[in-house]
């Protein structure tokens, strides 16, 4: 299926690794011009090389910390100045630290809110004028299946990410019809985030080894494995395309069937 994204422009945040990088790769492979982002310039350049190998469009890097308002403004400015506009905003971010409620401090909560929620608020505020132009734009928020079902040892993710879903649903009504807004809710995908979470679980004594922890994660998924990040990236590219033109205000779980919720 040709997603007809050639010539479109996209900004994908937190995309030097993992799910953001996979989404940027899928968009670039479909011919979109893409701005990728992360805090570490070396990692960002490595991601640019990797994505450029399969890209049909241009890949541009913009270093920046998503908890910094000025960095977010610079991200949107770069997309507009490099590509003359912006059609698609895909928001990802780093994950908040794992742990139980009693281990968290006020600072942890404020930082998680800045990273996961205020980054989306500021990105949308900055990007929406450009997204409205032309044939209309899209916003896709990468969050977590923890908004459907609380996950053990992830109190910050379970709590703070709910705000993004409330925001996403509201925006899908307030910004329509010019802009469609959706969220994707990943279960376990093979990225450094999952490696870090499994290492933390081993330290807490939940598994004997890293290998045991990874195996247990795969076994608990009905399809029998954790996800390939490109499976999520391809879904994001589809949601950005006109092929998904009637999908708006949805939160789509991509978890191999891990969740038990009926809806
Ligand atoms: N992978 C999964 O199975 C899974 C499941 C559910 C939810 N999620 C969520 O999906 C999101 C992405 O996870 P992932 O698996 O892609 O993680 P990842 O592979 O660790 O990648 C995280 C990316 O975010 C960037 N980043 C982190 N903090 C940043 C900041 N303050 N400003 C700008 N960039 C920042 C990192 O680059 P720098 O460090 O260089 O900044 C990196 O490019 C996270 O919120 C995670 O909790 C992931």
Identify low-pLDDT runs.
none
Percentage of residues assigned to helices: 40-55%
Structural class: alpha/beta
User: What is the chains' assembly state?
Assistant: single chain
Strand percentage, roughly? 5-15%
Unique ligands: NADP nicotinamide-adenine-dinucleotide phosphate
Strands of the biggest beta sheet: in what spatial order? 3-2-1-4-5-6-7
The helix/strand series, from N terminus to C terminus, equals: EHEHEHEHEHEHHHE
Mean pLDDT: 96
Task: Please count the beta strands (DSSP E, at least 2 residues each).
Answer: 7
Alpha-carbon distance between the termini? Answer: 28 Å
Report on the biggest sheet.
7 strands, parallel
Number of helical elements? 8
Task: Name the overall outline.
Answer: globular
Helix-strand blueprint:
Layout: E1 9-12, H1 18-29, E2 33-38, H2 41-52, E3 59-63, H3 69-83, E4 88-91, H4 106-132, E5 137-142, H5 155-174, E6 179-186, H6 192-203, H7 210-219, H8 229-240, E7 251-254
Parallel strand pairs: 1-2, 1-4, 2-3, 4-5, 5-6, 6-7
The chain binds NADP nicotinamide-adenine-dinucleotide phosphate (NAP).
């Amino acid at each position: 299926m040709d997603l007809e994204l050639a010539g479109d422009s996209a900004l994908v945040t937190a995309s030097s690794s993992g799910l953001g990088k996979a989404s940027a790769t899928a968009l670039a492979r479909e011919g979109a011009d893409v701005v990728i982002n992360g805090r570490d310039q070396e990692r960002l350049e490595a991601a640019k090389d990797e994505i450029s190998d399969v890209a049909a469009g241009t890949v541009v890097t913009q270093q920046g910390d998503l908890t910094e308002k000025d960095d977010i403004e610079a991200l949107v400015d770069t997309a507009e100045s490099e590509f003359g506009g912006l059609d698609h905003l895909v928001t990802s971010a780093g994950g908040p630290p794992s742990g139980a409620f009693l281990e968290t401090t006020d600072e942890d909560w404020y930082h998680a809110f800045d990273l996961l929620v205020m980054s989306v608020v500021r990105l949308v505020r900055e990007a929406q004028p450009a997204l409205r132009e032309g044939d209309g734009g899209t916003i896709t928020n990468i969050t977590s299946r923890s908004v459907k079902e609380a996950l053990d040892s992830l109190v910050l993710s379970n709590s703070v990410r709910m705000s993004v879903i409330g925001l996403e649903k509201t925006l899908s009504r307030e910004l329509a019809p010019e802009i469609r807004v959706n969220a994707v809710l990943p279960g376990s995908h093979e990225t450094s985030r999952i490696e870090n979470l499994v290492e933390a679980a081993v330290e807490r004594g939940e598994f004997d080894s890293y290998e045991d922890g990874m195996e247990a994660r795969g076994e608990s998924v009905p399809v029998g494995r954790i996800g390939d990040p490109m499976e999520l990236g391809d879904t994001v590219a589809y949601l950005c395309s006109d092929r998904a033109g009637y999908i708006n205000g949805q939160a789509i779980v991509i978890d191999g069937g891990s969740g038990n919720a009926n809806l």
